[in-house]
Amino acid sequence: MVTTDALTESSTLPETVADWIERAIIDGRFPEGARIRELAIAKELEVSRAPVREALRVLAGRGLVRHVPNVGAVSSGMSRQTVREVYGLRALIEADMARAAVPRLGPAEVERMEALLAQVLELSASGEWELMFQTAWRWREILYDASGNRTALEVVRQLRARISSVPHGLRDDPEHVTLNNIFYRQATTAVRNGNAEAVAALVSAFLCQTGDQVLEYFRQRVAGADEPAAGHRPA
Q1: Do 91 and 58 reside in the same domain of the chain?
Q2: pTM of the full predicted structure?
Q3: Cβ contacts of residue 206 below 8 Å, gap of 6+?
Q4: H helix intervals, 35-148
Q5: Is residue 133 part of a domain?
Q6: Which residues form the HTH gntR-type domain (predicted)?
Q7: Which of 26, 52, 98, 163 sits a CA distance of 20 to 30 A from 109?
Q8: What are the percentages of helix, strand and coil residues in the chain, rounded to 5?
Q9: How many domains does the chain have?
Q10: Mind listing the pLDDT tens digit for each residue in 13-42?
């Protein structure tokens, strides 16, 4: 359980409070839809409500908290269990779509995917990682759209939206960027060769590895709550 002793050094008090609440959400203390009460947090952390209010705004920007009219701040439920379930389900659905899609891809689609791969690698090299991930998803949309399974594609889009906040920290991780680049290189080659099973296997492995990286990121975030505070506690 996250405790006030776990608060770590931060550049501002709202950021410190935001880190504490984020860890509590990740650790499952605030499941999806649970109300996060400013006053209760302020009392527990022995701070005023102002930094808690600002912290909740920060977390809303990360997608970890949403504001409901006449209710207040509620948790998105972005726990480790949610990540396991969502990435596991995505691996199954997206691999199946990829397998069905490859035989149906025409030369024009393959050419577009190759062009997008070039953009992904260029954006990666220039450090424009946010735009790189957006471009990479366009590659996958071309692939999945070719499967003809509109229902599955809509489900995947909903699952992506469900965890859209997760990669905020991960997207700045060079290891994840490297994993991303390797996947798109190998998958584009497999698409070009018409190897549906290889593409499906690559998609599944990529999503499982991404899920593992997210869980490791979560582990580090929660583990940080167990480290001694560096002479700092909100006051």
Answers
A1: no
A2: 0.73
A3: 179, 183, 187
A4: 38-45, 49-61, 80-101, 107-125, 129-145
A5: yes
A6: 11-78
A7: 163
A8: 70, 5, 25
A9: 2
A10: 998 999 899 888 877 788 888 999 999 999
Residue 127's contacts (CB-CB under 8 Å, 6 or more residues apart) are none
Q: Which of 43, 78, 113 is the last residue of a domain?
A: 78
Give me the CATH number covering residue 194.
1.20.120.530
Q: What is the pLDDT of residues 83-100, one digit of tens each?
A: 889 999 999 999 999 999
Residue 235 clears pLDDT 60, i.e. is over it = no
Helix (H), strand (E), coil (C) string for 10-58: CCCHHHHHHHHHHHHHHCCCCCCCCECCHHHHHHHHCCCHHHHHHHHHH
**CA distances from residue 181 to 148, 185, 186, 222 in whole angstroms, order as listed:** 26, 6, 9, 28
Element (H, E) at 65: strand 65-68
User: Does residue 70 share a domain with residue 171?
Assistant: no
